[in-house]
Design brief:
Elements (H helix, E strand, L loop, with lengths): L1 E2 L10 E2 L10 E3 L11 E3 L1 H4 L23 E4 L8 E4 L17 E5 L5 E3 L1 H4 L7 E8 L8 E7 L3 E5 L5 E3 L1 H4 L8 E7 L8 E6 L11 E3 L2 E3 L9 E2 L1 E5 L5 E3 L1 H4 L5 E2 L1 E7 L8 E6 L5 E5 L5 E3 L27
Antiparallel strand pairs: 1-2, 3-4, 5-6, 6-7, 7-8, 9-10, 10-11, 11-12, 13-14, 14-18, 15-16, 17-20, 18-19, 21-22, 22-23, 23-24
Length: 324
């Protein structure tokens, strides 16, 4: 839930977790004379989806508590049906769950029903605070792999092709340790036929750094500007199931900001993938692929970085229609 009323909050907006909430799954419904405006129907319960997100809400009011978990649609078992993977949050020092914080992988049974197979697949638990997920076949074996972002590290799960996944983060070199990673995207930036990985890092954060902010005498979450931004991380796929951090070489390491969302898209029709990065309380980025392993930010000239008053547009997320 995002509030944008400056009369309520001392900063432009804040996104709060809907505590105790889970996914609402909707399907399209034909309009009828009785309900001409009805487009979607809530089928969450009848689909068998009961997953709930845990944010670690606590009296400390850590900013990370305000972030919702990520979700990804993928056909992990190759049966032609879209399954759903949910990333849970995590505990904070004074925000405990009373039990393990679990992710969920709902296998599509093909009859409008889903079954949670996360434990069987080896995806139910991660040892960090989860944030987002990016799906891509990084080793070209025909099965979708999953990269899970979070704090203070992230993880790569290799699809074994038999309904299970293996955590290959250490070998791959994709731990992204010490960073609060929000989103990620797989794309082949150098045209070698292998998927590389861009990770959007949000802000400097530590559970040992308890910031104190108040509104009308009440403890509240501090605005995001209290947290210094981080650079992006770009990992090059070496073709042997390992990756190399090329953030400096690509020029992305110098772009400091609170990055949340990212998409890869060829914006100038030169057949090379570019990047759009939505950044919170920071200017958004439009990164043009220079075809030599480097990128140039043209966000200002493209008028996606600032508004007409010179204020950062401050994007929180970005999406791309299917087929683009």
């Amino acid at each position: 839930m995002c509030l944008r009323d400056a009369r309520v909050w001392p900063w432009w907006f804040i996104c709060l977790p809907v505590l105790g909430s889970g996914l609402l799954l909707y399907r399209t419904a034909a309009a009828t004379a009785e309900s001409p405006a009805e487009i979607f129907s809530d089928v969450t319960q009848q689909a068998g989806i009961h997953w709930q997100h845990f944010s670690g809400e606590s009296p400390d009011r850590f900013l990370i508590e305000t972030m919702g978990g990520g979700v990804a649609f993928l056909d992990f078992d190759g049966d032609g049906l879209q399954d759903i993977f949910f990333v849970n949050g995590g505990e904070t020092p004074h925000g405990k769950n009373g039990g393990p914080v679990r992710n969920a992988l709902y296998r599509n049974l093909g009859n409008g029903k889903f079954e949670d197979v996360a434990a069987k697949a080896g995806l139910d638990h991660i040892d960090f605070y989860g944030m987002g997920a990016a799906v891509g076949d990084f080793d070209n074996d025909g099965f979708a792999d999953i990269y899970v972002t979070g704090f203070p590290e992230s993880a790569l799960f290799h699809n074994n092709g038999n309904g299970t996944f293996t955590n290959v983060t250490e070998k791959a070199g994709l731990k992204n340790f010490g960073k609060w990673a929000a989103s990620a995207a797989w794309f082949d930036y150098d045209g070698d036929g292998l998927l590389d990985l861009i990770v959007t890092n949000y802000a400097h954060f530590s559970f040992n750094d308890v910031k104190s902010c108040e509104l009308n005498g009440m403890r509240t979450y501090c605005e995001q500007k209290m947290y210094a931004g981080l650079p992006l991380t770009l990992y090059h796929n070496n073709g042997d199931s390992t990756f190399t951090d090329v953030s400096e070489k690509s020029g992305l390491a110098k772009l400091i900001g609170r990055a949340l969302g990212v998409i890869a898209i060829d914006v100038n029709d030169d057949a090379w993938p570019d990047l759009f990065v939505a950044r919170d309380a920071s200017p958004n980025l439009l990164l043009i692929n220079n075809k030599d392993g480097t990128f140039t930010d043209v966000g200002v000239n493209a008028e996606v970085a600032y508004d007409s008053n010179g204020t950062a547009k401050a994007g929180m997320g970005v999406d791309l229609p299917p087929g683009n």
